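Holo prediction — zinc ion.
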Amino acid sequence: MTQILDQLAAIVGQAAVITDAQDAAPYATDWRKRYFGKPLAVVKPASTGEVAAVMRLCAQTRTAVVPQGGNTGLCGGATPDATGAQIVLNLSRMNRVRAVDAVNNTITAEAGCVLANLQQAAAEADRLFPLSLAAEGSCEIGGNLSTNAGGTAVLRYGNARDLVLGLEVVLPDGQVWDGLRGLRKDNTGYDLKQLFVGAEGTLGVITAAVLKLYPRPRARATALVALESPARALQLLSHIQGACGDRLTGFELMSAFCLALVAKHYPATRLPFAAAHPQYVLLELSDTASAANLDAALQEALAEASESGLVLDAVVAASETQAAALWALRENIPEAQVHEGKQVKHDISVPISRIAEYIALTDAELQRAFPGVRLVTFGHLGDGNLHYNIAPPAGGDEEAFMARAGDVSRVVHDSAVRFSGSISAEHGLGQYKRGEILRYKSALEMELMRRIKAALDPQGIMNPGKVL
Ligand code: FAD
Ligand code: ZN
C-alpha cells in the first residue's frame, strides 16, 4: 500500500495525495450525505500527463479509480466504497480554460473548470455557454459531461451531451485519446465522445472538452404564471412556443405545495399573488434583440392566454431584482424540502405530451397506497422532467415512512415506465439506482452496456459498482 502511495506522490506531488481520514472526508461522502466511503487516497492531478501516469499505475496494480469533479452529484457516483482500496481521482486542479474561439463559437476547457467560471469566460468573449444548474458554483464541466447534466435551459439548448463537440479522455490503461475537435460536422465513424458523456466515470477520465458557445442574449424576460392544473401548463407551453418560438429558454412547473414550503422555510419570501393557486409556471424568454421587443412578445402572449382562460394570473418581472426573486422561488425548493424533513426523491421523465396524465394517475395511485402523503412536484416541464418527490403525511412517522421508500419509488418508477418514461432524467444511476435500473431496461440493453464497458475497461477498474 505504501508503495503505491509513494508512486502516486511521485507523479502528482506529495501535497496532492491526501490520505489523512479527516482531510479526505469531504471527498469520501456525497452531497446528500447518503454514502460514506473510505478511499485509499484522494489524488489531485494537475495535468493530463499526470492523469495518464496515475491511470497507468492503477492499471498495473489493478487499483480501482473513482473520478470526481465538484462532488455535487445526486446518486453517489463520485463516492468510493468502504474497502479503503479505491482512489478518488479529483480533477479540481485541472481548471484552466485552454482556448476560446469566438468565430468558431467554441471554448476548450479542462475537466476541473467550475461551471460558473466557464460561463464567465464565455461571457467575457461576448458569448453564452448555456448549461445552467443550481450547483453551477461548484460543479465542474468534467462532472457535468460525465452525468450529461440538464438544468434549466435544456428546453432551448439541450443537455450537456448536445453542447460538446470534442473530448480529451484518459483511458483506463493510461492511453490519452485526443478527440478535442471543434467540428460541427464530422461523419467519420462511431461518435466516440458520446460514449463517455453520461458514463459517470465508468469508461475513462474526461480531462478536457471542446464546448459549443452561443450568441449572448441581450434581453431576458421572466414571468410567474398561476394555473389550474399541469394540463393547463402544457397548453401554455404550446401557446408560448407558438408565439415566441425558440426564445423560450426555461419552463419550470411548481405545485402550490412547493411554493408553500418555500414561503414557510424562507420567511422573507414574497409570493407575488394575493391568492394561492394550484400550480405555477416560471418561464423565461431570452433574445439577442432588444428588451422592449421581448417584453412586448411575452406580454402579448400572456394576455392572449389570459383572455382564453388558460392562465389564472401572471406577473412579469420588471427588473433583474424581480426576476431573481422569481427564480429564487424555484431554486429554493430543494433546500426548503431539506428543512421540511425527509422525502423520497425522484427524477423521472415522460414524453412532454403525457406529463399531466402522469401526474394525475401517479398522484392518485400514491394516495391509495400511502394515504395522506404530500407530493412535492416541480421540475423542468418543458423537458418532460419532474422532480416528483414524496413527503410523509403531515405529522406522520418520518422514519416509518422512509422505511417504505422502496415501495414508494416502485409506484413512481413503474408508472413512469408505463408512460414510456425514464427513472433517471438527469441525475444518473451511480450507486443509487444501479439495482433499480435492472427492473426497467431490457436484458439486451444491459448486455450491450456491459460489452462496451468490457471493451474499454477490461480490468473493471473505472468506478466499479456504479451504473452497471
Ligand atoms: P461529481 O459529483 O464530482 O461526479 C459526478 C459523476 O461524474 C461521478 O460518477 C463521477 O465519477 C463522474 N466524473 C466526475 N468528473 C469526471 C471526469 N472528469 N471524468 C470522468 N468521470 C467524471 N443535475 C442536473 O442534471 N440538473 C440540475 O438541475 C441539477 N441541479 C442540482 C442542484 C443542486 C443544488 C445540486 C447539489 C445538484 C444538482 N444537480 C443537477 C446534480 C449535479 O450538480 C450534476 O450531476 C453535476 O453535473 C455534477 O457535476 P460534479 O462536477 O459535481 O460531478
Ligand atoms: Zn433538475
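READOUT: The chain has a mean pLDDT of 96.
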